[in-house]
Protein 1
Amino acid sequence: MPRIELEYFAQLSEATGQRTETRDTAALTAAALYDELRAQYGFVLPPGRMRVAVNAAFRPWDQELSEGDLVVFIPPVTGG
Amino acid sequence: MTRFLMADGPVDSVALRTCLLRAEAGGFCSFEGWVRQTNDGRPVLGITYEAYAPLAVTEGQTILDEALARFDITDVVATHRSGYLRVGEIAVWIGVAAPHRDAAFRACRYVIDEIKKRVPIWKHEHYADGKAGWVACHRSE
């Protein structure tokens, strides 16, 4: 079971009550990990409105996860 | 060269403009995004900008590289703030130098539009009534 590092921003940080998390997960892909977190923390945003970054680069949702990966789920951006 | 910066202090627009001065440029165009005193009619005191900085910088740099490839411009730089900003402060600054004005205007517009769509930065607005909240998403404006 890979150990994944997570960093939370904006609404996700508020929903989880934390900025970072280290998590052992059975999820094989970024999409499966988001589903797992959504079930636990009740994230409102569906994956269709989100993006995902692995090791500080945007990746597709079917990206496979490896030990030590840093995963960041990206809510709709509102900069500018 | 790093053309896109994340800044946690005030934006020095004079210094940014100076670094774009080129003998081959015939014009310069800039856009400043400011913290406005209302959002959707609700009075705003300030905004905290939160960024996923490593990705914000690489995505911002990608957008500027796209602008250089797409438009006939001499150079382009951009800076985005993080942290708490009061009404009237500069949240984002974009400057473009080009041989001719049309490319400068179009590149500047392209860069701000793409920043707003793609760069991982989020606004947490602080309202006059003491409440605060994450801005849900951009309106199409």
Protein 2
Amino acid sequence: MRNFKFKRALTLIAVTSLLSITVVSIPTAAQAAPACDGKVPVQTCGGATSDGAPYAMMVPANFNGTVYLYSHGYRPNVAVPAGIPGYGGYTVTNTPQPGPNATVIGALLAKGYGVVGSGFARQGWNADSAIKTNVELVGLFKKQFTKTTKVVAWGESLGGFITQALAEKHSDLFSAAAPLCMASDITPLMTMAGDALWGIKTFFDPTIKGGNYSAGAAGYAEAMGDLVKVFTVIGTLQAAFAANASAPAWPATSKVPDAIKAIPSRSALVMIALMSGIPMQSAHFDSTSAPSVLPVASQTSFILAINPAFAALENVANAAALAVLATHDLELQAGGAVFDNTTTDYAARIAEEQFIWASALSGNSGIGGLLSVLAASPRAKANPAAVEKLKTLTSHSGKVDIPTILFTGTADPVTTAGNQQSVVDKYATYWADKWVAARKAGDRKRPANNQLVLWNFPSAKYTKYTAAGAPDTSVPAATGTNHCNFTTSQYMAIADLLAYASANGKNLSGGPLLTKIRKAGNMTYDRGYSAPQLKYYGG
Amino acid sequence: MIRKTRVKGTWLAATVLAVGSLFATALPAHAETGVSSSEIKLGITLPLTGAASPGYNKIGNAMNAYFKYVNDNGGVNGRKITLIQKNDEYSPQLSIAKTNELVLKDKVFALVGPLGTANYTSVHKSVGIAKRGVPSLFLNTGFSGFGNKKTYPTSFMILPSYAMEAKIMAKFLKENYAGKKLGIVYQNDEFGIDGLGAFKAAGTKFDVSVAYTSGTQSAATAQTWVSQLAAGGAQVVVFFGVTSATAPLLAVAAAAKYAPQWILGSVGADPLTLRALGVPLAVLNGALTPAGNPSPNDTSDEYVKQFQEINTKYNTGTAFDDYVLQGMNIGLMTVQALRAAGSNPTRKGLISAMENKGSTFASVAYSPLGYSKTSNVGHTGYYMAVMDANGDRKPFGGKVTLYTTDSGSGPVVVSTFKRPAMPAKGLPNN
């Protein structure tokens, strides 16, 4: 295969910041009763719920009675050293966040809606406490703003998980909800993180701990050490890709047998993505295109083997930091190791995908070689008590009786589209059961369908190349890729759909729905689409 | 089984799947996706550009030429057929995107002739072909896995499977080259492995085995294949890959004066394409290949003669070769399937027609078709052929000896099957 060199471009691969904290200037109040600034046209109130979580309320003078409760995404529960992509330099904060960003908040206020959001009492995976916080916060808001008639919930990532749970458990408080790019139940999510970390460790650096961190400061140091090692591996792979994308060298830290190193390291990276469920389209790599300056024969090999490896590299880099931080966090909460792959059959896991990505995996020989490494490597064993504790945390039932609107990118590398699909499938079962029960009771009227499912598909081709034929990763991430990568238009379309559902007790449908999402751009309502279900749901 | 039903408000596909027949609602036939009072829209994905495109890029136009011929003769029950071709560049990920366009944007009635094993695997899974109930007829791949009716309930093969092909080649090797050193070059994915597994099951042992990864084929990589084959002393070499790999293999071998008995798998053995890719005629002379169809040069064959006439008029300037023959034949079978689906075809009706009547369709290939309610297997056999100094293909031994078998452990047997006659003027009247 031709040696592809992209020295400049690969140094540009960057991990998107996963933190989006909208800072709102709020009056300080350590008690439940809100302290309001009394300003017009927008009044801002601050305070703390009984658990100490600070909140922010923003209400326009022309408040129309509907308020949007926003739940923010995952923030690490520990400080993260500078230099770590995505989270580097982060210090733990519980700054309240009443909306996705300042632009969206401003637009909602301008329309007469109120916004409210908590910073939550603890960071990390905090769904159970955040649900309680939000329930209390809704009561406080209603008490403070008695004109309130409707409360809608929305949130992203972990906040999407919280939003879905609020809709399931507290339908009396909310008239509609929109979980966006939602996280799945914690057990499968930690399995995905564990598989990715274990894959990086197994192929590239066995000194990565990957989980089972010690308690206290020692465990924190181990996790931060892992972060550094993981990104050292990724940086080394980037450099190897730059030197020779066809046959990039293995990192010196890799201890796989020399015979396996005859397989390009890029194929191991693709294997990690596939076995952990990370998508094969990334912010800048579509897995379908090649530089036009290449000869035709080389274009095909680039499309089949090189571009997908770049996509895997970029997506694994985006998912890695969260994988380490969430593993450390959840182990602390559960009291021990939660990832267990002692019985995982990785060959079965990739049985279908290996056909599709055969070239990127260096053919069946490459697949066989890489799987042999996975089969022969020591597995991670969980602490049974910790696993059981994890199961006691809130999970989704899919049982929702208020209108909900689900939206995610199909190539989100952190909360993959399968997360949304799992809730879609659960709701389908719930709806079907209700329908059967209704028929048994002699009721011929179908139950209302309360779930509107929207997807953001990346374009077929979007990788940009320089005139010299190098991939250009300086351009913005493609739509449908990256974590919770939404536009203001999309946020506002969701907000409008929530307002409609809240006012009418049902979701918008038919032509008006299609017109609304078409105008927002890159929002698809496809009743026949089903995202690949996460295989690790089955263990 | 999925049924399309509108529910008040939004619509939930997964729910419909869950409740199954509770939603059964018959749609008016004329309201079927991709079918209007004057048109039936069909779609195909295939590589129109790129390294894998030579030969394959002719199939869609050949199908289109046949459909134009049918349209000029009244269409199918008064409806004209429109074929939308999408270039997937042989990329599975692009196949998904392009098939999504066909199904969601272009709203085709059915897919016909989608090409490539990895491509169709990814399409079937990601687009949800079965879940959506989209008929996918005459797959241009012989991967035996697609014969699994349970997994692929709306898909129908046309080619004999790679496993069938390998079993027939294994029998031929045993009967004609016992004691010779055998070599094999195969595509290192499910395509090649499908064949390799069947060779193994048949007891064929290769002294030299060379795998190549799809997309890497080139003169440079072929150099390494030839070196390994020559070093291993292979006297008979089986090739199980695509034409764009056959060409550099044969060309490099000729340059190195390495001349084993070549046995080229059906996928990569079209003489015209090989010649266009620079393989000298002299190298092809004497090469053996399993063949399902008559030679595209055999004008004594009623199918070939008719298709050549159509090609001359409706596909002007395109040399008539195996790919054109295959494309035309898919067109012929598609029209029979559409007719069998009735005057107001539905997707469900088309699938039912394939299951109930597909095995009786006229087809240029010599072997029986395996369609039934429990089988989506297409043709089931090959004869061995030898290429001559003119780049033509003749039956090995002077006459067609048709072997049929299955993709499993069934025996390879000589068949006396007589294929149906070409419909008058090439226009089905079933």
Protein 3
Amino acid sequence: MSRSETSASPRRRWGWRTVDIVVASVLAAAFGVLFAAWNNLVYPTISAPLASSPAAPLIAGVWLMPAVVGGLVVRKPGAALFTEVVASTISMFFGSAWGLAVFMSGVWQGLGAELVFALLFYRRWGFVPAILAGAGAGLAMGLYEATVSSIAPYAWDWKVVYVLCAVATGTVVAGVLGYVLVRALARTGALAPFAAGRTQGEI
Amino acid sequence: MTLLQTSLTVNTAAPLARRDALVKLGAALVPALALLGSVDPVSAGIVLTAAVLSVPAWGVRWSGLLRRAWPLALAVVMVTAGNAVFTDRKGGAELIDAGPVLITTDSVAIGLAAGVRIAAIALPGVLAVLTIDPVDLADSLVRHLKVPARFAYGSLAAFRLAPIMAAEWDVLGRARRARGFGGDRNPVTAVQVFAGRVFALLVGAVRRGTALAVAMDARGFDASATRTSARYRPIDRGDVAMLAGSFVLTAVAVTLAVVTGAWNPVISSG
Amino acid sequence: MGRTLRGARVSLRSWGWRYAGRRAWACRGVDLDIEAGERVLLMGGSGAGKSTLLRGVAGLLDPETAAETEGEILVDGQPAEAARDRIGMLQQDPETSLVMSRSGDDVAFGLENAGVPADEIWPRVDAALAQVGFGYGRDRPTAALSGGEQQRLALAGALVRRPSVLVLDEPTANLDPPGRTTVLGTLERALDEAGSTLLIVEHRVDEVVELVDRVVVLAPGGGVADDGAPGDVFARRGRDLERDGVWVPAPWGRPPPAYRPGPGGDPLLAANEVSVTYPHTERAALHEADLTVRRGEAVVVTGANGSGKSTLAMVLAGLLRPDTGAARLLDSPATPLHAWRARDLCRRVGTVFQEPEHQFVTRTARQELLIGPKRAGIDRDAAARRADDLLARLRLDRLAEANPFTLSGGEKRRLSVAAVLATAPDLLILDEPTFGQDARTWSELLQLCVDLRDEGAALVAVTHDETFADALGDRRVEVADGKLSP
């Protein structure tokens, strides 16, 4: 009774295994820890002086990484959104001064990346999809901040600058760095339970 | 240096602290959503005042709250300043005119409104989160919002690992120092070292997640049987009253803002 | 409850499993019959497929991760995947076995998953907690438990589901000696009571050999190399097993190496009145600790988990800033070690962490050995020569270009030690260096430490490993409640 490489059935391809859920969550928790570090240590010293200027999003790219990394590792519908939301929830529980605002931002940012993966029918997980997803998350973050959240009273031209900064940071920090990070994770062998960890040659 | 602030003492028997987890979040979310619709000092001021007055009822000490929320105070200042500079409402008397930077009484007013609004949106959520046990939240999400149990408890299990990973973050910093890295003035090296530390944390996270998934499946987490719940906390009258109170407060805040003419919808405020 | 024999029969029929992305089979051609209620210790060298086999019996191998499979595993005639609810499993690290933040909730988790009605859950949880001798109430936070207590709780979480087969993958590897003793004692009582079939993998064979009545040895290439009563198997194959790095218990194994005193020398390191209290804790982790270490001397630091011995090691290594007092090198006493620049520190003080992966900073094994000297400003050619020497000495030369994270546990340990030695430090701080290591790596580590000491280095090793401590320690320091007693 022997069989070779099987092509995954649709249920297998779309359905979440426990390892998908838990690894996405633990990755999110790791990012939540980073966010907490950022909130409590980095934010007051480095980013507060920039906060609420149109350049503020340039240092906010770290917030968008869970969506891209979660999507690229788990490769299931909802993975980007789920990872980003869990990361923001965990940072909300462990030392964020922002309360639910963090959660709401997480939902939008996750949706931005999720939408890109959905438009690619959850079939493409390479470099270009990664930077598009990062850009999508950045765009969602920028639009959310500019329309309803912290910079709503800005003049419209400053809002455009703000949104462009958000897209740029999403593309570079979440997209490029996220992709590089997942590739490096795959090389450690830690991603063996995932398709993302099996794309290289046999060793 | 501990990363995560987990050791806040909360009197869990306080009238608002002992409410259902989802109810607490809902009660914090209602005014937050309403405030997202407008930038004005009246609605935001009323919600913020109510939130501040309610602090004792959450069983949270002032000192603990301050320790947790001080970055918020800082952010309020920054949001106020940023909006005062970058808004296009530059009516009223000129206060500062330094080339591109023009600050007027109107722009300061709108900046202050934006600052107070951020605090009013955040503070109720901070209070709710401070008093919520994640287990209760997962239970409540599954029971009352019909969130799939696999996702609720899968992410709950990851919650348990957050403090462990925070401790690991410290260890990773020491391990880097032992190899000769850290304390660099050169920003490029500093970023590289930070990135390496993040990477090591994530490798550990994936390995832990994989082991945890096996442990959970070994206890039947992916079984097809209908899951039961060992803990049941029904929504009681106090929960209903809390939600109702939150709705009433929000309605009063919005109505007063509209009646006084302060209501300033965000979509057209740009 | 649990009076009747409820063990199940486990049969493997020419079973094999090859992971996707791997050319070699993890496990192949295994034929094995385990009778109901039998207690089997599974052995084999590193990479013989023990863990894969355990997961296969537990029905937890994900077909998605397989490139190829063969044969079948049956539990009482049923395929293992279909018999999942009859099997309880325990893994190495209790931190990644527990799900909930309250002890009682965690034990209840497996019953909730099985759809047990809510009113039956709590009596069963209480019974399981009593069965493993869990001394606290249901509300005890799992984070407040020691490793041994956590593993007992995890055992309760498995037993509460009344498994017919218990599958244990190195259940005591992460525990300190008292934790190991309580977990194994608890396990023995639970097995006597429940009559479950037991399949266990354990590094430290001497501690479980009393518990089992059969030993199965997996051959590295596939199949079963030996099978029988523990005494017979060890008498027949003790030598082969030792060569594969397996710990063979006395009287069949080699006796532990004898202690030889180090040469000694001038004092090199002195810690004076060092106190550390972590934020958000009441008690001092370390209280006014004094310690002097000489060149050519190995000091062994022992003590229970949480006693403060790791904190002491971190202060001695200059990696943790104490609240009061300081550790200094006596030949450059002006600056306390914690205030040294990292690149200077790594030239004089080498620290080996318990978890090798924490120390890796590059992409290949060779780079790991070159980057420290580069940071420390050591001559490039000299560093390269030393790197090659160390790689050869620690049997890593063939892995020079491998990604450090992909190495086996023993290889990672050897690489992390080699990377620290690359900058030729004259003070070495080792935190649980032998943790989880097989017998071969263990002996190599010991020999390396002895050699370094004989060459004049000062060593401080924090360890639970009594055999290692006896063989290496010129002096022993006991830490209890943050206080040192020489």
